[in-house]
Design a protein that fits this description.
This protein is α+β, with helices and mostly antiparallel strands and about 170 residues long. The protein is built from 1 helix and 11 strands. It folds into 2 domains: about 40 residues; about 120 residues, Cupredoxins -  blue copper proteins (Immunoglobulin-like, Sandwich), CATH 2.60.40.420. The strands form 2 sheets. Strands 1, 2, 3, 4, 6 and 9 form a 6-stranded mixed sheet that branches. Strands 5-11-10-7-8 form a 5-stranded mixed sheet, with no helix packed on it. It is elongated.
Length: about 170
């Protein structure tokens, strides 16, 4: 048996090095985003019946809105609704500065998107699934929320606002 040294072409070796460097860079970027910048990956919080989520009296989405669960901590139940008015309910939310708001968003009809501008909250809203993300509002101002998934002819009017007061 002879021990022969394997030859790798210089061009191929360089591409393997570039690929390995890119993998390390991408893994570093994901780690920095996840741990350093507080980026959260939304996960399904729970399942609901999309046919009754807006009408069931025991469902928080039958009366969507803001609920204070502790001083400075709120739960916001938001219903993304295409029919009949292409809207988010509620249209307006107001919290004091420094508040932490957990958004629970679902839809009874079609897929929507939910993005709170100037925050890291951005996720898909799937009928029958409750998506949840938590945001702390440290700066006063108005934070608009918009639908980011095309959901039909009224998509452009699906928006709302969070007012953070001093």
């Amino acid at each position: 048996m002879s021990t022969q040294k394997m030859h790798i072409d210089r061009y191929e070796r360089n591409w393997m090095i570039v690929s390995a460097v890119l993998l390390v860079l991408f893994a570093s970027a994901v780690s920095v985003a996840a741990f350093g910048m507080g980026i959260q990956v939304p996960a399904p919080e729970q399942r609901v019946n999309p046919n009754t989520v807006a009408t069931d009296p025991n469902s928080p989405w039958s009366n969507p809105g803001l609920r204070e669960v502790a001083p400075g901590k709120y739960d916001a139940y938001i219903l993304a609704h295409a029919i009949p008015n292409w809207e988010y309910l509620p249209k307006e939310i107001s919290v004091p500065v420094g508040s932490t708001v957990s958004f629970y968003v679902t839809s009874p009809d079609v897929q929507h998107g939910f993005k709170v501008q100037n925050t890291n909250a951005n996720f898909m809203v799937i009928p029958g699934q409750v998506s949840k993300l938590t945001v702390t509002f440290d700066e006063p101002g108005t934070y608009n929320y918009i639908c980011t998934e095309y959901c039909g002819s009224g998509h452009g009017v699906m928006y709302g606002a969070i007012t953070v007061t001093p």
